[in-house]
Amino acid sequence: MSDIRCIGIATGGGDAPGLNAVIRAATKAAILKHQWKVIGIPDGFDGLIWPEKSFELTLDKVSGILPRGGTILGTTNRGNPFRYKSTNDGQTVLSDISGQVIANSRKLGIDAIITIGGDGSQTIGHELFQKGLKIVGVPKTIDNDLSATELTFGFDTALHTVTDAIDKIHTTGASHHRVMVVEVMGRDCGWIALAGGIAGGAHIILIPEIPFTIKGVCDFIAKREQGGRDFTIVVVAEGVKTPPELKENRRNNPVGNLIGNAIAAGSHKEVRVSVLGHIQRGGSPSPFDRVLATRFGVSAVELIARGEFGKMVALRASSIVAVNMADAIGQLKSVRPEGELVRTARAIGIGFGD
Ligand code: F6P
Predict the structure, then answer these.
(1) Which residue range forms the structural domain that includes residue 209?
(2) Alpha carbon of 110 to ligand 1 centroid (Å)
(3) Sheet strand arrangement including 112-117
């Protein structure tokens, strides 16, 4: 018999479509199945610095949020209670306020917390667990780059956005005989670019895991031209490793622009660049993401009911499993350059600029 009476839910890191679906599922399961009280913690663990900002999540509060993007709890990808930033005499000071955060959660009557977030939030969650907080994790990132889980919710919705954008860019690119560069998200890994590029029928895909050269890209475009194909779609992951000649300007310029300019100089084609940016993080979650998020939310509640703290839910071989947070953090799931998805892309003639 569990001694849990009240749980808290927090969303941390960049938002992703499906966060509200997790909040709704976890709240419903906690109330309907276990009769627990549920507290919404605003803006990740920052919400526990000011406990008065937390509020009760009731069935009414989560009604109607399933199709909504973003998170009704708010989020931040800056806050970290172990390295909390404040200013003293104009100087930035870092302090450890994790003790205060744990004390405030107890003040609120919270027995256990579900932290929904990416690698950063799960790392903080694990540190708080080690300090005695009862915590379970739900993985989240549109980048789909957490090694512990085969998929994160938000990725599928982002792919819909990217595919739709490439479809639209295709028709204008073909009409004007241009090279169309589409920059997509993917800070460390190229999953969105690779899967979105395949789904959208891109001709070249540039990802952080496969080094490329501008010459490689331009030669590919020239070959297409020789074959009578006078337009080219190039999908670029924002985290792509640029060749040395482009590195200097990287800081203040979207990488898509840098690559687009270099292709224009190297191919003598007209080039247009679209940086999709944060539209990939917004919008209503796809049915797949809603189902995955709901499964994650319910499973996180069950982890708490079973007293399995310090664990994170994950998708493996189509089933929801629990993994140790300690094993889940700090390990990126990169695209394998020799993996099946890259081989599939190459087999249908997609180039990687290498
Ligand atoms: O982690 C997901 C992600 O979408 C990355 O691909 C991107 O670099 C980052 O978030 C941007 O986050 P923000 O603009 O919110 O700091």
Answers:
(1) 156-280+337-347
(2) 30
(3) 55-56, 37-41, 6-11, 112-117, 135-139, 311-316, 319-324
